[in-house]
Amino acid sequence: MGMAAIPVLFRGRKATTVSDVVVATLLDWGVDTIFGLPGDGINGMFEALRQHEREIRFIQTRHEEAAAFMASAHYKYTGKLGVCIATSGPGAIHLLNGLYDARLDRAGVLAITGQTYTDLKGTHYQQEVNLVRLFADVAEYNEAIINANQAESVTDLACRHAFTKATVAHINLPVDVQDQPAREKLSHMRPARTITSAARSRYITVPCDHDLEQAAAGLNRGKRIAILAGAGAVGARRELIAVAERLQAPVIKALLGKAAIPDDHPLSAGGLGLIGTLPSQRAMEECDTLFIVGSSFPYMQFLPEKREEVTGIQLDLRPECIGLRFPVSVGLVGDAAAALEDLLPRLKKHDGRFLKTTQKRMRDWNQLMDSRANHMSKPMKPQTVARTLSELAPSDAVVACDCGTVTTWMARHFMIRGEQKWAMAGNLATMAPGLPYGIAGAVAYPRRRTIAFVGDGAFTMLMGEFATAVKYNLPLTVVLIKNNTLGQIKWEQMVFLGNPEYQCELQPIDFAAYARACGGIGYTVDDPRQLRAILQQALRSPKPSLVECITDPFEPPMPAEATPKQGLHLAESLARGEPHRGRIALTLFRDKVRDFKA
């Protein structure tokens, strides 16, 4: 026992146990924040974290799912490796939804989980789950550390996979292995104790000259060029704007690319799809050349229909994404900023007729959106909340959005500007991450205001995390749209299927009182004339705050241009016994009248 307590020097730090080795390796990879919960299956790791609490900040969550969402958001906001940790069995299982968010949106996340004692595995012991098998689909690197000699190399490789490939990695540590002594001498097959390292260099992939010349030729031939920018273009704002100006091309933004260029920039045509703008839809219909930059936008029906008449050119860091959604004649594989910079001098200056047409349409669209958002009667419109929040949000705010009808209101009415950051669960489109994302943003940027825009249904799923925000006194404001319904699901049932809504109504909760019960500040507002003053108070609050905005539950998140089929389905749902058909029909009629006036 005495020998086991003797520390060894490991990468300049004293290490007594395998857990110490894992933590020291994480420190070498620049990890300074970990999200999660302790438990008896992972407590050896927690002792190592306790001894390094000045170097690694641990954020204790109320649920492991939230920890995984926070780790995903940490990477999305900062570009740094996100790390979450959970105990064996149920704790590890809870991580999965957040990890799939990271996997599908290409966020670099490492998950660390506990496991039962090695000599009890296979005996149906309590909380014994084959976690390596369970994580096989979500984690690109997925290993159990079953020997002290593995700790360093497996942790290094897990970090390397997650960080350099922007994916999920998972390491699993049995309870007894966590406390095994860190060894000075290794096996005969490994004469050197250290065989891996955290050494890494920044590299940038750029397309070859031949591909750049082909892409330039295709773009130079175009007369009506549209650019679709996604998450991969967010770090290339300057270069994207320069290329778009040279091509006189409107920039249409996939939802994860909302911060690629500011929403108020003259080149911006807003979003695309069900939550997009009509000018972006028209640009897609009328363009003769489509340049996709860093996007795998999934809704192919919103891309140009006459594909044989449209030249497709795509730039993406991942070669497997080239041509995934739209047939392209040229594929550029590389970093968006570097590739666009190399492409720019090869491009000719285009005339601005197509862009000017889109800009005229955007002025009309913005006027329509202003009309919808400036509705001052009750019940309060959710558009009014999103637009007012947009006007009040600091120019460096960190913004998180949940999934649901709130996504439509934020996509159309919250105007990203300045150095604001934007993140949400994109490809997984799961409910619940809005609050965890907000917490992760506030942890990463404690000197900036973080805003989480959420719906009442999604917020309820992980509402315990508001207590996490209070515990760490984070600069977080939660703006909650309360309509007591699962709004997105309700409208999908009606507009997409022609069915009356079913099982979508929610039991009302006093969310402002809940926020105060957690130790934060809670506001309730149902009058749009009082909204601005209350949001101003919340955004200046020294404590975590929540603004419960009671809004019209019958306000539909309609697409920019509804199809005849969607209108028919809505009529069918009303005729087949939709319980609120009178209120819905009246709301639609009044909205249409206001739109005509605008």
Describe it for me?
By secondary structure, the protein is α/β, with parallel strands linked by helices. The chain folds into three domains: 176 residues, Thiamin diphosphate (ThDP)-binding fold, Pyr/PP domains (Rossmann fold, 3-Layer(aba) Sandwich); 152 residues, TPP-binding domain (Rossmann fold), CATH 3.40.50.1220; 224 residues, Thiamin diphosphate (ThDP)-binding fold, Pyr/PP domains (Rossmann fold, 3-Layer(aba) Sandwich), CATH 3.40.50.970. The protein is globular, with a radius of gyration of 26 Å. The termini are far apart. The mean pLDDT is 92.
Please supply descriptive tags for the structure shown above.
single chain; 598 residues; alpha/beta; Rossmann fold; six-stranded parallel beta sheet; 20 strands
Number of helices: 23
Q: Structural class of the secondary elements?
A: alpha/beta
CATH class of the largest domain: Alpha Beta
Overall mean pLDDT stands at 92
Give the neighbour order of strands across the main sheet: 4-3-5-6-8-7
The proportion of residues in beta strands is 15-25%
What is Rg?
26 Å
Poorly predicted ranges (pLDDT <50, ≥5 residues)? none
Q: Report the CATH topology name of the largest domain.
A: Rossmann fold
Helix content range of the residues, please? 25-40%
Q: CATH superfamily membership of the largest domain, which one?
A: Thiamin diphosphate (ThDP)-binding fold, Pyr/PP domains
Span between N and C termini? 80 Å
Second CATH tier, the architecture of the largest domain: 3-Layer(aba) Sandwich
> What composes the largest sheet?
6 strands, parallel
Total strands: the figure is 20
Give the count of structural domains: 3
Q: What global shape is seen?
A: globular
